[in-house]
Structures are given as structure tokens and as C-alpha cells.
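hey
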């Protein structure tokens, strides 16, 4: 993107995704903040580094922003910190604000170790960022202590204001997607149909130990009205060749009335769509209604077929409930993706083999198993607290300073994640799980792993990638010589 020689008020940036898994989607959090600022008369520009090939230093001088906002996730935090460092080198006096899920749960760690970042906004950032802009740019008499979720350094301490949630989501303007110019070629899985994505609610009714969604949006789930959602869909259809929608609600069916109202609203559009749900939040009638309204694909979490593991991770759902949901979907012609994780706290290698056998038994009944080998720990989760309590993470662990071990590559983790390893289930045994799944053709293909490596050559050399691949093939061939019960 080339910029005219004009100054702006706010530059919002988003780091590139090291896994290249989400570069087809506009970062809606940034787009929503931009829309709120624009509504109040601020001039805003965005840079999504997933689709940016220009000179950042040069563009900074051209745009000369008064504030720079940086988003991102745990996996992309290194990119967020790099953006802050480069921006400070060019514009040392310009305030830099960091937000998003990773920022929200690592305030002290980030402000202690990443000195280029001046402010962090925890939780929902739209109105807090606006208030900060009013204070810093328009010099309004706003007390920093009144800005919800604002965090900053003060003498020898770090101030963390209480998070304030946005109760009325309809008060937010439609996200400013028009500020993004990258090739966001999103398609619906299994169909290759051009798609867009939207969120109809914030929050999650569940509290799974490995997820921070319920803490990121505290106080329960809030829903947008159908009129507000319809306004966004109408805008998407008028500006794009959209034939499908991906709903990114944490649990779309968490509120039955909301799900049924959405089905009634969306049906006349003749769009196909997908959503994520909990198996205990649907019945056959609801799924049938969703199908008739265009639902073609659902994502459902199982995580493990072993009851004691399901209890450990606070999933509060049974294998039988998931199987019943999948049975209804099969009957209705709704395609299914099931999430499975190997490497939970306390999980044994035998339990991993039990889950692998479960996947193999059901692979013809489920369209796609989204398997994760090695449990990724994220800040703000109950799992993080549990791992530290059990001394599975260093007591002085710093997300800002952490560099992943090369052993991550053995299990297909090419991001910047902390992978839980235990004495009873270390990297070697997790890699054996990979080979079991590869042997039964229920694991991500080796070609996918090579793609991940060569998409970002900074992660690991191609020679090492090929070594990993060859090692995997050799173990699989060796495994084939062992007795079937092993």
C-alpha cells in the first residue's frame, strides 16, 4: 500500500502470523477500534503486516501518526514487539499502545521487558483507546485513572486500571474493513466458496482450562441484536462477492434464542455458513433449523475421549454428548470438525494411544479431526496457573523473553508457543503420537509441515525440515514392523 504525503492521527498495526493460518482474515479487533475512532473524527490508517511489503520506516515518516496502536496474539507477540521497537527508533516521542488477548494477560511482564511500549489496554479496547486518544491528541481533561483497562508505568510501579466491558455491543459501529487492502481470500472449508467472517457475540459460557475467552470478556456472554448483525452482513454483501460466512463466536449456540433468531434472520440471504458450538448446547431441532438456514459446517471440541482428562481440563462435556451431536449432523448433512489435543496435564502415553484409537475408529464418521500434539499454554488461562503450580513452567517465566525450543518442530509447532511437556509425556513420546496418527492417516500431512517451514524461512532451515520429515517417515516405517497392539 502506498501512502499519500499526509499526516494522520492514529496508525493501527497488526503483526504477521508466523503460522500463516489467519492471513486470509482481516483482524476485526483492529478494524473495530478504527471504526470507533473514525466515528469521532480521528484520521486512521492501518498496516496489516500479513499483507505489507513496503518500507515501514519510510511510511512512518510519511504518515507521522500522533499515536501508534499495536495488536496481536501470543503466537505473534514477537512481531508486535518488533513493530514497537522500529516505531520508537523512528518516532521516539510518539506514544505506543499495545492491546489484544496477549497484552491483556501479560501487563507486568510486557511493560517490564518491552520498554518501547508505553501503554497497554486490557480487555475490550474500543472506548478505552478512544479515551486515551482524547487525552493524548485532543488534550481533553481525561484522568488516566478513569480509562478502563489502561496500564502504564508510573515511577517505580505499574498502574493497572480495572477492565470495563462494553455491555451494549450495538453501540459499536460496523468494523472498518475498508481500511484493509490485502488479498484476504477467505473460503469456507470443504467448499472453496468465497467467505467473510463476523462475530455475533462476545464471551464464552464455558471455562475450559486451556482457553482464556471467558476471562478476556468477563461478566458473561453479550449478544448483538439481529438488526445490528444484518447491517454488517448487508455491507459485506454490497462490497464483496460473499457467498459464505464464518461465525467466530466462541460458542455460537451458547444462547438458544440468539441462535434461532440468527437462523431466521440469515435464511433469506441464501448464504452457507459455519460456526463453533458445544455439543451440550444443541439438540436435533436446533441443528435442523441451522441446516435449513444455511449452516453447512460446525466445529466442536472434544479434546479427549478419556473421561478423567475431560474432567481435568474442565470441559464439562462427555464423549457421548459429542457423538450424539455428530450423529445428528451426519443425519442432516452438516459437515463436522472435531478438536482433539494430546498432552494434557497428567495425561499418560497410554491415554494418548486411547485417543488416537478413538480418532481412527471414527475417522469415517467425522469430516476432519483438528489434532494438536502438545498442549499449548497461553497467558490468562487456568492451565497457565496450574502449570506454574505444578512446576511445569519456570517460576520466573517471561512471555516477553521466552524463546521456544527447537524440539517444538518435532510435533509440528512452528509458532512461538510454550508447549507443555511432562516427565511422563515429553517431546519424544509426543512425537510418537505424531507417528501413530500419521500411520493411521489422521494427522496433518507432512506436506503441511513443509509448507509451514517454507512459508517462514526464519523459523527453521529447509534442511532441518527435511530431516524432521525423513525422521518421521522412518519412525512410521519402524512402527509398522511392531505388533499391532504396541
Amino acid at each position: 500500500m502506498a501512502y499519500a504525503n499526509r499526516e494522520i492521527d492514529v496508525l493501527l498495526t497488526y503483526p504477521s502470523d508466523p503460522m500463516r493460518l489467519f492471513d486470509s482474515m482481516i483482524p476485526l479487533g483492529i478494524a473495530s477500534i478504527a471504526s470507533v475512532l473514525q466515528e469521532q473524527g480521528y484520521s486512521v490508517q492501518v498496516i496489516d503486516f500479513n499483507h505489507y511489503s513496503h518500507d515501514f520506516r519510510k511510511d512512518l515518516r510519511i504518515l507521522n501518526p500522533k499515536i501508534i496502536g499495536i495488536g496481536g496474539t501470543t503466537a505473534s507477540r514477537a512481531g508486535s514487539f518488533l513493530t514497537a521497537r522500529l516505531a520508537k527508533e523512528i518516532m521516539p516521542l510518539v506514544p505506543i499502545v499495545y492491546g489484544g488477548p496477549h497484552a491483556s494477560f501479560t501487563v507486568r511482564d510486557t511493560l517490564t521487558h518491552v520498554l518501547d511500549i508505553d501503554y497497554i489496554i486490557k480487555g475490550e479496547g474500543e472506548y478505552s483507546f478512544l479515551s486515551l486518544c482524547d487525552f493524548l491528541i485532543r488534550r481533553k481533561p481525561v484522568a488516566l485513572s478513569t480509562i478502563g483497562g489502561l496500564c502504564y508505568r508510573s515511577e517505580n510501579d505499574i498502574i493497572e486500571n480495572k477492565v470495563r466491558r462494553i455491555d451494549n455491543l450495538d453501540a459499536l459501529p460496523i468494523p472498518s474493513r475498508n481500511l484493509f487492502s490485502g488479498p484476504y481470500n477467505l473460503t469456507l472449508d470443504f467448499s472453496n466458496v468465497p467467505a467473510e467472517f463476523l462475530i455475533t457475540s462476545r464471551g464464552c459460557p464455558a471455562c475450559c482450562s486451556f482457553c482464556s475467552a471467558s476471562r478476556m470478556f468477563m461478566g458473561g456472554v453479550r449478544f448483538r441484536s439481529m438488526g445490528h448483525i444484518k447491517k454488517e452482513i448487508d455491507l459485506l454483501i454490497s462490497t464483496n462477492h460473499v457467498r459464505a460466512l464464518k461465525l467466530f463466536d466462541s460458542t455460537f449456540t451458547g444462547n438458544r434464542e440468539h441462535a434461532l433468531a440468527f437462523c431466521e434472520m440469515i435464511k433469506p440471504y441464501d448464504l452457507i455458513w459455519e460456526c463453533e458450538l458445544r455439543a451440550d448446547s444443541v439438540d436435533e431441532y436446533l441443528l435442523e433449523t441451522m441446516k435449513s438456514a444455511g449452516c453447512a459446517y460446525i466445529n466442536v471440541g472434544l479434546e479427549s475421549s478419556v473421561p478423567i482428562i475431560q474432567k481435568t481440563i474442565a470441559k464439562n462435556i462427555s464423549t457421548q454428548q459429542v457423538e450424539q451431536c455428530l450423529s445428528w449432523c451426519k443425519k442432516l448433512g452438516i459437515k463436522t470438525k472435531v478438536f482433539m489435543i494430546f498432552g494434557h496435564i497428567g495425561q499418560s502415553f497410554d491415554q494418548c494411544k486411547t485417543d488416537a484409537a478413538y480418532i481412527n475408529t471414527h475417522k469415517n464418521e467425522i469430516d476432519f479431526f483438528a489434532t494438536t500434539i502438545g498442549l499449548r499454554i497461553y497467558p490468562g488461562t487456568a492451565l497457565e496457573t496450574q502449570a506454574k503450580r505444578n512446576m511445569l513452567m519456570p517460576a520466573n517465566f517471561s512471555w516477553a523473553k521466552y524463546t521456544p525450543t527447537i524440539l517444538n518442530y518435532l510435533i509440528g509447532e512452528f509458532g512461538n508457543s510454550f508447549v507443555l511437556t511432562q516427565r511422563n509425556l515429553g517431546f519424544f513420546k509426543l512425537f510418537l503420537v505424531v507417528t501413530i496418527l500419521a500411520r493411521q492417516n489422521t494427522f496433518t500431512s507432512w506436506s503441511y509441515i513443509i509448507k509451514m517451514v517454507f512459508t517462514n524461512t526464519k523459523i527453521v532451515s529447509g534442511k532441518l525440515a527435511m530431516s524432521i520429515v525423513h525422521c518421521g517417515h522412518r519412525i512410521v516405517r519402524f512402527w509398522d514392523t511392531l505388533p499391532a497392539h504396541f
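The first helix runs from residue 28 to 39. The two ends are 56 Å apart (CA to CA).
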